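Colleagues,

Please find the record for the two-part complex below.
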Amino acid sequence: MAFQFDLVSPERRLASASATEVQIPGAEGDLTAMEGHAPTITTLRPGILKAVAADGTKAFVVTGGFAEITATGVSVLAERAVPVEEATPALMESLLAEVRVAAGASEDKDAVDKAVADMMAARSAIGQ
Amino acid sequence: MPSLKDLKNKIASVKNTRKITKAMQMVSAAKLRRAQDAAEAARPYAERMNAVMAGLSASVGTSESAPRLLAGTGKDQVHLLVVMTAERGLCGGFNSTIARLARLRATELLAQGKTVKILTVGKKGREQLRRDFEANMVGHIDLTEVKRVGYANAQSIARDVLARFDAGEFDVATIFYNRFQSVISQVPTAQQIIPAKFEGATTSALYDYEPSEEAILADLLPRGVATQIFTALLENGASEQGARMSAMDNATRNAGDMIKKYTTIYNRSRQAAITKELIEIISGAEAL
């Protein structure tokens, strides 16, 4: 049985394919989901989401949302998700600004710092 | 009896109107396609979101630690009605049906001694509700400049609503919009968004939650509000175009009937004038 990977944003379905493993930037640390994973729901932190399939790896920059993992698949609901190839420095800059604005609304100073730091880390991870 | 020239002008003007309504109908048909596609594309996210939140809220339930967005403030004194309509008219009963439903609800709540606050999205709803509820209006969100409704628009509306909720301005929020069924049928709908309500709240699989269920729920509920508003905006967009399409179709048909009627009258009076002139000539000749 194939392991299904779905990535949806509020506006459209970004990816729907079978994968062998999916690496998820969870709020409490990275995790990799494979076939037979225990059913889990985790929130995401800003970072890089990778889906490894037989025909190559697809990576996306995500800013938040959550992932629903079952034994047969992963569906990721991301508020913003961009394929890494399309993540230009300008785009990353605007995503970073968005995270700052969104986090600015909350009073939790640590959460704001963490979100911004996560975004910075994601940016350096794709070599910018 | 109008003169021949008047009739001719009238026919020309109705023909022009028919051209315009025909064009509007075709534009709406194209826009409807796009709006339906957008609504279709947004469906998977909304459905998943709803399913996960329904499961979560069922397990967290009404425990002490449940977030306020789910459990409510414990009162239902102040109601916020978010009335979403179109920015433009000429779409049949589209705006009026929403406004009517909202007006009905507002009157009902006021009769129960509750406080009603109205937030309007879209110009037309505001115009219609201002007559009766000027004092209850607390805000207006203008989407005139927005060509295609995006998630960002829904997010900014949600942020506005949530800020008001955090400030303790209301206890219950309901959104009003038209649910799209078909080109000829749109159903005005009222949907409570705060405190959140879910249909069919049963969990099939037992999930591990990371972080805790409460933390996830607290993170998801504001997103859920935005998602519900986004879905409503898209449904509304499709409904608006559908309503305009059928309204313009009717208008085009009516204009056609009118042209036919006036052309008949025009021809009759033209013939009558000719007959009259002939009679005058003949009787003039006979008199000689």
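Chain A touches chain B through 24 residues (CB under 8 Å).

Comments are welcome before we finalize the supplementary table.
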